[in-house]
Amino acid sequence: MKFSMNMIVSIVAGLIMTVVIVYSLGLNGSGRSGPPIIVAASQIEAGTLIQKKDIKLIYWQNSETPPQSFATIDALNNRVARQTIYNGEPILEAKLAPVGSKAGMESLISMGKRAITVRVNDVIGVAGFALPGSYIDIIANVRDNQGQSYSKVVLNRVKVLAIAQETEVDKTKPKVVSAVTIELTPEESERLDLARSIGTLSLVLRNELDMSVETSKGAKMQDLIKNHPLSTDESNEEKMSGESSKKNQDLKNAPTSPGYVDQIRGSNRNRKNTENE
Looking at the 3D structure of the chain, how many domains does it have? Predict the structure, then answer.
């Protein structure tokens, strides 16, 4: 088969154009199209040691990579994930435990904080909606100096680290467990330990974006029955009872005439003549 000069020129031109297009798209065999960056090759769970099989190097499509990202795989040797990192997500310093941290629960605890576990049930644990990463308030129910039941928020915006022995769960599916591990300062840990030793605890789920701190005075029995119809009825009964007692006392103290005896039954008073007997 003989090739004409025009055919040869067309083939060469086509090859040159293909090379130019491939190079311009960053698909020249090395995948280069921007600066290198390390991303997750599969989902990396919080508290786990990052291994080479969990990550890969790609070339970022933009001229600048995200802040705190990594450009080499070796830079992530012996690093532990502090938060879940999803497949294809860039590895950022903010999602890693400090250098030297070991895999496990301790790597999830913020500096200066402690982890403490609270026993719960389906009611105390907000029906299983308090999951790792959630934020809660804690209410303690104790007795005051008069022995009256008293409830108050003792801890605000507490982070849940784990439920049972799990640090990662499907957040769309509530899970009822018997224990919840939360993150507190040492002082908060002392307050919680005291509260649960003298009363009962309840977890109150809150919006993770809500940064407010509640400073309520707490609630007593009087707060529940105040301005309640039952409270008004009881007050009326007490008032009537008091008036009846006063009336009976007045009757007892009333002077009697000679020869007469007063017979008092409840609020009724009868005077009887004893001279004719």
Answer: 4
